[in-house]
Amino acid sequence: MATNSEDTLIQENIEEYINDDNKIVTCRWLSLMLNLNINDAKRALNTFVKHHRNKPADGLFNVTYFIAGLGKSKDGEPMHKCVVVPEAHLEEVKNSLSIVTSCHIYSVQRAKLKDYTSLYLTDYDIIKNNLEKCQLLSSIKCPRATLRQQSKPSVKSEGSSSEIKFEKDEQMAVISSKSATSSSAKGVSKKAEPKGSIANMFASAGKKDKGDEKTSPVSAKVNEPTEPSTKAKVKSKPTEKKGGVLSLFSKQEVKNAENAETNKEKASEKERSKASATKSNTSSTKSNPPKTSQTKEKKNMKKRTKDSGDEDEEILERKHRRRIRTDLFDSSDEEEYVSDVEEEMEMSPVAAGDASDEEDTMGEKGDEEKQVKESVVTEDVKEKENITTNSANAGGCRKRKRTQKVASKTFVDEDGFIVTTKVTEWESESDDEVMEVQEQKPVIAPTKKNSVAQKAEPKGKAPSKKAAVSPQKGKQTSLMAFFKKK
Amino acid sequence: MIYSKLTAAENVGIFLTENETVNQEFEFVRSECSIESNDKFVVRDRNFNRQYAHLYAERLMTMRSRLSEAAVKKWGKGIPQRKLHGLNSDERCIVIGTLFKHMELQPSILKEVSEEHNLMPQPIKSRYTDSKDKLIIEDELQRIILVGQLKCQSSVTGVIAAVLGMEPDDQKGKFYVEDYCFQELPSQMPRPMIDEEKFILFVSSFEFGGQEERSFQMQMLADLVSGQLGDPDQLKASSAICHVIIAGNCLSRSTQDRDSLSKAKYLSKKSSAGSVDAIRSLDSFLMELVTSVDVTVMPGEYDPSNFTLPQQPLHPCMLPQSSRYNTLHCQTNPCELTVEGIRILGSSGQPIDDILRYSEIDSSLEALENTLVWGHLAPTAPDTLGCYPFVKDDPFIVSECPHIYFAGCQKEFSRKVYKGPSHQEVLLLTIPKFCQTGEAVLVSLKTLEAQPISFHGHFPIPDEQMDTGLDK
């Protein structure tokens, strides 16, 4: 029971709602607004009416009552009636009922009500916003009503599993929007959702490929680290896989010279078992993507393995992490990325500084994600990851150079308008060719691409970028110079 | 208890007294009940390539033995039971078969497309009966026209009946019915003794998204059931409501826009179906109920389920919030469930509506009773009512006697206790449309008494004689 001070506080609140805000105060609204038990709310309203009726200045409000009781239907049969009625008709209704079982105040308001629509609307919003709280304030408790276990009853259907994924993605999006410095939450979540779900599909495939990469023979002859192509590939994967990759690489230390075939098998097996333990991934979603992206992956793995052969373990890890990081920013939330970039405007184009910044946000994000997703990463791997990120910060990056430029982006916003904005972007050096290609075309071409095929991006970009990689090294530097002047 | 006996309630107006006098907390716990649902109406294999002949054959085969017993019981063993091909002229005999009602006015797609008729539009009627209708009985091989006692007006196609009579020698092709009978109502499980008062609330036709949607009354209903409205005794009585059955048509007909099917895709790409918002409202409405009480939701004619009977449960993904609770039970239509040992059987009303269309039965209660007497929940399916082509099993045959037998989405509340030949007592209920009447039905599990409960927001005059237009 409320103490006296609470009571007076409640009374003051009611008075404010009614007299100052000119609101309709129903008992349900009051109970949800002030977190009162519904019966206390009824009482409080009554106290309010009793006290203020005596004062002539304040007495100008209308009261509706809830009455229930036994009445007669049209055919004269007994019928239990529940009526909400304005005060003027209170007695009339009471008399029409043979037995009155309930009579209490339903609402208090200054306005004279013509019908009950406004009463309904008053309750509507607050009830819809507090659906789960309603029951706590009710006077009937139902211990039976509990949430079902999260493993939905119909696990068999693919729909349900994707539903779960989707939910998780949403959560992830929310979290990322929280951690984002200045981007609007809506935009982020909107962008993150579809891509996240697609990315999820490919996630398992990606892991598998990593397994392939590390074990393949070190005989490939590729000139460059081939960032664009890996980027394109990685784009379709969320950061979730980081842990998996890391763990795989850490094992590589031990068994570098092992047979490709066996390792591959092991890796995929491991992935499978992990995935089945943690996620409710259906087997079909897992098995399909690898097939479709196999050819692409093979190339990548050859290229990648060159790296792993030349450089030592840590560098490889770092490099790899960094790539994913930038990709994630690119793909999931551009706005966020931009804002980050803007903050770092003054810094040198060599990415030491901003890499560290990104690293931090990424670390956070990654961790949160992992929590949400119950991802594959085990605890120790996570720790190790943090360590490596630190070392990456200290060491800085060698090969990457980044340039800043202004690009106009067109996209369809929530209301369906096509919006074109100028966006400052940091581009890694090797991406320049691609950008250059786009730049040379009339502006319409990229906008079209962006607006039409936002979802298809991860897939759609991959081949075009690959094609653009082929030109020789010499050309790149000149292009760099071009953009710097700009 | 407030809802069953007409005793005066205490503590009325307790919330209209000052705080100091009442320092009492009123907390009640929802009474519990055991719920078992029978999944015999769940369609497992979805094979739509079959003909309906199997269903009729199955119905006749299953019910023939029961009818044979019933006929022997009624008319004795002396009278021979004949198949139509073995019929002898002027011999008094019993024929068991499926009734078929030949109706001139029955809408037929063949008539509509046939060339002779394509200039004459089919009359649009709410009832397709005519004085020239003929009743025919069919067995596995043949058919014969029935004349005499079995009234054509009150019969419908698809009922299995046993008729006693003869085919006169001078009037071949007609069978003169002297008497008739249907299957006997199966024996009933004894009703369990329930000590405390428990209620089931039946309600139907909320019709979210429609013109007639009564949001305020629905809110009152939810508030009352979930214990937000009323004085302590009322709350106590409300806490005794252990189950809510929503018998169909949660969504309005207007949420089904069939135009979108014929429209070009690019025109309707951006627009979402009308049912999306409605089902979202339904979800949050159900949330208020399921957090407090067990709720069974049956699909109805306009709900997003399949069209043919038995309609399959609403998919939980449509109700993302409320389906998280274990208290939400999505059921088939028709559905059969057992609450606290009380067997409840019912539909969302389509079979009853269809019988009313194709016979001269006037009240839905009578139609409901007839389906029980005929021993078949939906005899007009598959003739004039959409039905899944069952092959080895006709789930609509009444093979177990319920305690409560209801039909949702009817015009008005009505009830009747049907007494069977071997002391079965079945409470027949027609559940009114909430969107039109603002009424629900409370049934006591202890006594099987039914009482309507109505919700009004009366501005300005609360009276039954008042114009109902004000009530909307």
UniProtKB/TrEMBL annotation, chain A:
GO cellular component entries: delta DNA polymerase complex
Keyword Nucleus on entry: yes
Subcellular location: Nucleus
Signal peptide: none
Swiss-Prot/TrEMBL keywords: DNA replication, Nucleus
Recorded GO MF terms: DNA-directed DNA polymerase activity
Protein origin, superkingdom: Eukaryota
Protein name (record): DNA polymerase delta subunit 3
Phylogenetic placement of the source organism: Eukaryota, Metazoa, Spiralia, Lophotrochozoa, Mollusca
UniProtKB/TrEMBL annotation, chain B:
Pfam family membership, one: DNA_pol_D_N
Transmembrane residue ranges: none
Domain DNA polymerase delta subunit OB-fold per the UniProt entry, residue ranges: 51-180
One record GO biological process: DNA strand elongation involved in DNA replication
InterPro entries, per database record: DNA_pol_a/d/e_bsu, DNA_pol_D_N, DNA_pol_delta/II_ssu, PolD2_C
Main subcellular location of this protein, as a coarse class: nucleus
Domain DNA polymerase alpha/delta/epsilon subunit B as annotated: residue spans: 201-414
Annotated localization: Nucleus
Presence of keyword Acyltransferase: no
GO molecular function: DNA binding
Keyword Methyltransferase on entry: no
Recorded GO CC terms: delta DNA polymerase complex
Keywords: DNA replication, Nucleus
PANTHER family: DNA POLYMERASE DELTA SUBUNIT 2
Family recorded in the similarity comment: Belongs to the DNA polymerase delta/II small subunit family.
Protein name per UniProt: DNA polymerase delta subunit 2
